[in-house]
Please model this.
Amino acid sequence: MKKILYTIAVCAIALGGSSCKKLDNYEEPQETLTGSVIDAGTGKTLQTENGGGGTRIKLLEISWSDNPTPFYIASMQDGTFNYTKLFAGKNKISAEGAFVPLVQTDGSGATTVDKSQTVDIKGTTTVNFSVDPLLRVEWVGEPVLNADGTVSASFKITRGTSDPAFQNDITDVHLFLNSNKFVGNNNYDNRYSPQTDFSGSSANAQLGQTITLTTKGGPLPTKRDYFVRIGARTNYGLKYYNYTDVKTISVP
Model:
């Protein structure tokens, strides 16, 4: 009996392996989707962070289904995206992040705004999105290395949209500092990166004003470069940050 069961098991494994080989004859996906998410007010790419807390591109492949499973591509930190392993096909594409949603629905789930793009992905396909950020965070001058070894950074925050439905209260502002250029809420040195929290509408009076934050925790270690940026967010949705671009400061 043991020999019979062993023989059956071996045959099943062999057949399974043969079956897998037959199903694995498709060519790997080779199409590329590239593009940018652009701030409509400045014409510049919208700064974000790498990973799940940043901008992402949503694809719905409608070539074969009216109800496809979404596929997401993470944007790079500078607001661009480039994905080289897609299958050819017609896709409905939108972007999600710290900006007024491109696709909006009402309380019943009916779509009220739809600024997605339907494109045929084949070869290298470029798709750009123009968006209104929830906040616009901009440098005022350059970050400064102080005599005591700390770094001070000045900036201003303004609304990126005139739509009151998306002008929620600012919850916090953060000076992010790290020893590599991939810096943001998902990657920073909390020993030196200060955060200012706000309650209710208390931050509204500072909109458009110059704000300065200084690193905490004493002097920075010497003989190295640091990468800094400012992030601010509102209490809308998933509370993603809007960012400045990244600046480099050298500590001798």
User: Anything to note?
Assistant: The longest helix spans residues 2-23. Residues 92 and 180 are 35 Å apart (CA to CA).
